Structure formats: C-alpha cells, structure tokens
Amino acid sequence: MAKFKAVLIEKADGGQKVSLTDFDDANLMDGDVTVRVEYSCINYKDGLAVTGMAPVVRRWPMIPGIDLAGVVEQSTHANWKAGDRVVLNGYGLGETHLGAWAEKARVKGEWLVPLPEGIGTKEAMAVGTAGFTAMLAVIALEQHGVLPSSGPVVVTGAAGGVGSVSIALLSKLGYQVIASTGRASEADYLKSLGAAEIIDRAELSGPAKPLAKEKFAGGIDSVGSHTLATLLSMTRYGGAVAACGLAGGMDLQTSVAPFILRGVTLAGIDSVQCPQPRRREAWKRISTDLDRKKLAAMTTEVPLDKAVETASTIVKGELRGRYAVRIV
Ligand code: NDP
Questions:
Q1: How does pLDDT run across 114-168, given as a tens digit for each residue?
Q2: CB 324 within 8 A of CB 58
C-alpha cells in the first residue's frame, strides 16, 4: 500500500493539530525493517505527546505511539525477514522517529526484539512500555537484593499502567505488595492483581523527612517528587527503590540520609535506551512471570480512531491499567 492510516501530529497556529489521516509510504523515515503494525498501546508519554503538555515530540510532523507489535513486511537487516513477529519499545519511536499509531512503521532492525514464544501482538502491547518498565524495575529490585523474603514492597501510582503490571509481577513472584493509590475506589481491582494492602497516596505525598520509620523493603515508584523522597525515607536498611516515573512531578527533594545511614539504593529505570541484552531478558521474564489472566483483566482494547481521545485522559491520572490500541 502506498498510503496507510496513521495518526499525525502537526504544528498548527503556534500549537499542534492531531488527526487520523492517510500517510504516504514515501514519507516514512529511514530504516531497514518495515513492520505491519497490528497493535500499539497508550502510555503516559503518548498522552504528553498528543496533548502537547510536554515536549515529547521532537520531529514534525510526528506519528505518535512509542510501542509497537507486528509482523515484518520487508527487511534488509540480517536479523529479520518477512513474517517475523516483533515488538519494539522506545528508541525514540513517537518522539524523534515516526511512531506506532499507524498501519506501517519503518524502523531500525537493531531496535527490534522477537515476540517471545506464546505472546501475541495484543498481549505484547497490553504489556507495552509501561509493563516492560515494570519488569525492568522488578529486575532492578532483585539485583539490589530485594527478594520476596526481604519484606513488603510498595508500588506507587498503583492503578496506572506501570503500577498495575508491577503489582501483578511482584505478587506472582511471591512478594508482599502494598499498593499506594489516590483512588480508593480501585481497591478491589488492586487486590485482584495481587496487592495485599492498599494505602492512600496522601500517606506518601507530603514533603519528606530525611528519615522516617522503616516500613518497606523496597519500592517501585511511578510518581517522583515528594512521593519518591518519602519512599526513600521509609525504606528499610539495605533496601532499594526503583524510580520509573514523574506522574506527580519531576523534582526530588531528598537528603543523603537514606543512602549513607541506611544503605538504601535508588535505582533509575529507563526503558527507551535500555540495552538489547536487558530488553531481551525483560521480555523473556515477562513471558514467564506475568499472569496472563491478570494482564487481560487490566487491559482495555481501543481502536486506532479512539487512541488520541484515550491518550488525552491518561495525563489526568484517570485511566486504569493498560490500553492496547488495535491498528487494523
Ligand atoms: P499512568 O497514568 O497509567 O499511571 C500513573 C499513576 O500515577 C496514575 O494512575 C495515578 O495512580 C498516579 N498519579 C497520577 N497523578 C498523580 C499525582 N499528581 N500524584 C500522585 N500520583 C499520581 O501512567 P504509566 O503507569 O504509564 O506511567 C507512570 C509514570 O512512569 C509516568 O510518569 C511515565 O512517564 C513514567 N514512565 C517511565 C518510563 C521509563 O522508561 N522510566 C516508562 C514508562 C512510564 P493512582 O490513581 O493509583 O494513585
């Protein structure tokens, strides 16, 4: 097909315009693999891109969508051939490189990961960057010695995408999970994913003391700002917190006390430029450590023509779990 359906963000009147349009094949960017996209998904970053709330888009016009799963249509890259089933998270897709909310994407072969055995394209995008990030965070906790036997692990932004997948992963691995949420109405949902206890996010959202009572062996944080600082102050001796996000703010007003007096580790998590060996390890772990029934229960499917509207809601903190975008 010379033209294909795509969501396009264009500059307009000092702002931006987003529409579902017919995009010309000839305007795709350079890459050695062309993928027929079956599913993408909605991440917080996609919400920032389509609303223009943060300068996520750094190339105009832009097709949003930071994740894709699909089938290779054409390839001149040695590792890939037509018919291969692939997944791609990050690498600037939807930011600097034309993204995934389109029937077709042309990308670099070195960015792709084979779809793990037994995972379909919809499931892969139900996971998406948010779930992949949750897996990276769990691996980081393990690497820093936070194991199920270490004690309770708190997940902030619990009802969101990273939070929901983190709870499901941690609970399957045998951790005692404490879910921190601003939505008490989601308590049953969070328990169904495996949370043992629910706390109100207000308990963690005030300015942090240098040190507070030791409560958690570890944490996975999507919120940042005071929440991350408070979490650090409440982390037990030798524990670790994986910092994934900034849903509550980008700042971090903390002190060195948790690090030098309790040996706490702050582990940074980046999904975008994550090196290939770790990517493949994370996807392999997702295929074994994520309960598929829980994944299905936390996922809503939306068609491509509803992606923009849905993504505009994620930045308000109103979406629950994960949203897979059906492309065709
Ligand atoms: P979601 O919007 O799905 O989840 C974020 C959750 O954070 C919300 O559901 C809400 O949970 C909570 N929240 C929202 N606003 C606030 C606030 N003002 N104060 C406190 N809590 C708040 O987003 P994702 O889960 O997809 O992403 C979470 C964060 O992680 C984002 O900042 C995103 O940019 C970042 N991220 C980073 C990645 C990386 O590579 N490091 C990759 C993927 C995401 P509740 O209602 O339960 O309180």
A1: 999 999 999 999 999 999 999 999 999 999 999 999 999 999 999 999 999 999 9
A2: no
Which of 44, 197, 322 is the pocket-test mutation for ligand 1 (most atoms within 8 Å of CB)?
44
Residues 140, 106 share a domain:
no
271 and 90 Cβ atoms separated by less than 8 Å: yes
Instruction: Give me the residues paired with residue 5 across strands.
Output: 22
Based on the fold, state whether residues 14 and 108 are members of the same structural domain: yes
Quote the CA–CA distance of 196 and 145 in Å, as a whole number. 21
Domain final residue pick, 227, 250, 268:
268
Decide: 146 in ligand 1 pocket, CB within 6 A: no
Q: Which range of residues forms the domain containing residue 151?
A: 129-268
Among protein residues, the one whose CA lies closest to atom 19 of ligand 1: 248
DSSP codes joined into one string, 22-87: EEEGGGSPP-SEEEEEEEEEE-HHHHHHHHTSS----SSSB---SEEEEEEEEE-STT--TT-EEE
pLDDT tens across 23-67, in order? 999 999 999 999 999 999 999 999 999 999 999 999 999 999 999
CA of 46 to the centre of ligand 1 (A): 12
Domain total in the chain:
2
Structural domain includes residue 160: yes
